[in-house]
Write a structure and sequence with these properties.
Rossmann fold, 25% strand, Beta-Lactamase, alpha/beta, 297 residues, 5-stranded parallel beta sheet, 7-stranded antiparallel beta sheet
Length: 297
């Protein structure tokens, strides 16, 4: 069972003492007992507890929901609400702060154990996810590969620095384009097919095509397109591309074909088009200065 340092926020002294005994018998450390919202905020800052048991009804003008709201502005400490009032309005107001748990007084040992363990496990999982996202953002920002996020209809959402540098667009300029505008040469048949396939299949869709930079340069690339699902629908696609370094540059001059999933389709010229707010991509990439893989060279 996970152990924690716990701050008790309870304005009834007998209940607070019972909670202290319960928690200590369960192996937790109680770092303080306070009975107002202001004291709860101050004690959380000073003592940095690993979890807060917060009574909703407190003495003074502010209550436990007010205290939790203030604490959540600068701390991610898990907060479990306690109250003798389990009416719908009280629960609805308390849930606006997205607490880690909710127990009704008098608090039974079994309920307390369940609530605390659930809160600690969720908090640890969220911390790992944040660490992963931070590392993923670092990798995306520093890779030499081009990382793009687009809507299923092709509208651009974002690019990492390598993509913006290679293509010659600022973030605001890029977000006004459609992916098909970034693909070189004559026709656009390949992109709708590519995006449709990527949105429908599990796993990655491979592609090889030539990008058109803003200054007219042609950039042969090879990579993958994958989907992200949210709420049962595909809300965006990510594209990771590695420039193909050819020992004979003349061999890539004038190329006007794009290979999508092994099939060859025409590529196309850029034109003017629309929209999309920037977001951040996360995927497995090679560090700056290294290749996509041996086949991409």
């Amino acid at each position: 069972m996970l152990k924690a340092t716990i701050l008790i926020v309870e304005d009834e002294a007998l209940i607070a003492e019972d909670l202290r005994e319960q928690l200590e018998q369960l192996g937790h450390t109680v770092v303080g007992v306070v009975d107002t919202a202001d004291e709860a905020i101050a004690a959380t800052r000073q003592k940095s507890p690993g979890l807060v048991l917060m009574d909703i009804r407190l003495r003074g003008g502010a209550d436990g929901v007010d205290a939790a709201t203030m604490i959540s502005e600068w701390s991610d400490v898990p907060i479990i609400y306690m109250t003798a009032h389990s009416d719908a309005d009280t629960v609805a107001r308390a849930m606006l702060v997205q607490p880690y748990g909710y127990v009704v007084k008098p608090v039974r040992d079994s309920d307390l154990v369940t609530a605390i363990q659930t809160a600690l496990l969720r908090h640890a999982a969220e911390a790992r996810l944040r660490a992963f996202e931070t590392e993923a953002r670092r990798i995306v920002e520093n890779t030499a590969d081009l990382v793009l996020q687009i809507l299923p209809d092709g509208r651009m959402m974002s690019s990492n620095p390598a993509g913006r540098t290679a293509l010659g667009y600022s973030p605001s300029q890029l977000c006004r384009l459609n992916f098909r505008q970034l693909v070189a040469d004559s026709h656009g048949e390949a992109v709708p097919q590519l995006l449709s396939r990527a949105a429908e299949v599990d796993g990655d869709t491979q592609l090889q095509l030539t990008l058109a930079a803003r200054d007219g340069r042609r950039i042969p690339v090879k990579g993958v397109v994958g989907r992200r699902q949210l709420g049962g629908r595909v809300d965006r696609l990510w594209v990771v591309l590695h420039p193909i370094i050819d020992a004979n540059p003349a061999s890539t001059q004038g190329s006007n074909q794009a290979s999508v999933g092994g099939e060859v389709q025409p590529a196309f010229l850029p034109t003017e088009d629309a929209i999309g707010p920037p977001v951040t991509a996360a995927c497995c990439l090679q560090p700056a200065g290294r290749g996509w893989n041996s086949a991409a060279r």
